Amino acid sequence: MIDLTDDPYDLFGAWMAKAEESELNDPNAMTLATATPEGQPSARIVLLKSWDRQGFVFYTNLESRKSDEIRANPQVALLFHWKTRKRQIRIEGSAAQVSDAEADAYFATRPRLSRIGAWASDQSRPLADRRRLEQRLEQSIALYADAEVPRPPHWSGWVVTPRAIEFWEDRDFRLHDRAVFTRAGEFWQATRLYP
Asked: At how many degrees (to 10) do helices 112-120 and 130-143 cross?
């Protein structure tokens, strides 16, 4: 049973560690839900790249649809679902861009071809022909053949600062265990929920 006296970050870390033991692919995959200022929702899978008590970080093209929506409406939701563990975690909060230093540090850890691909792709914009992307990739490979690949100015990360973190665990007969931790100033208030 979810312990309501737990710190939600410690509980998140414990559940993530268990997911890393059992999930075959991308235990750090999470659904990111955004919305336009008019309330039109959009969701997609992104990868959690780091987290701490300040928030949950993912990286992307700043000219992508998700980034446009976050700039217009920074209220977002994240969802981790681990089928093998029969668990999920929902996070609601606000997103802000990470510092250039943090983005540079993470970008430098990416595989070289992924760094080059960040220069070649106009993420979320129309692509008339796949060959055009391949040509741009070849051009970028040639451009950086003998050089370090710098982080493009249009590529960075977002940190989601949570105001609520909900833990859900499957139980028999759909009598699931469910609890939400809601930020109350510097502290968290925990509430058990009906399934």
From this structure: 120
SS3 content of the chain, % helix, strand, coil (to 5): 30, 35, 35
Q: Is 1 contained in some domain?
A: no
Q: What's the total number of domains in the chain? A: 1
Which residues on neighbouring strands pair with residue 188, listed in sequence order? 183
Closest CA to 34 of 42, 22, 26: 42
For residues 34 and 25, what is the distance between their CA atoms, to the nearest angstrom?
24
Q: Please check whether residue 83 lies inside any domain of the structure.
A: yes
pLDDT at 84 over 90: yes
3-state secondary structure of 105: helix
DSSP 128-162: S-HHHHHHHHHHHHHHTTTS--PPPTTEEEEEEEE
Label residue 127 by pLDDT band (50, 70, 90): very high
Domain that holds residue 172: 8-192
Phi and psi (nearest 5°) for 8? -65, -30
Angle at 193 between CA 188 and CA 195, to 5 degrees: 145
CATH number for the domain spanning 176: value is 2.30.110.10
Which entry of 87, 136, 174, 192 is annotated as an active-site residue? 174
**In-domain check, residue 173:** yes
pLDDT at 97 over 90: yes
174 is catalytic: yes
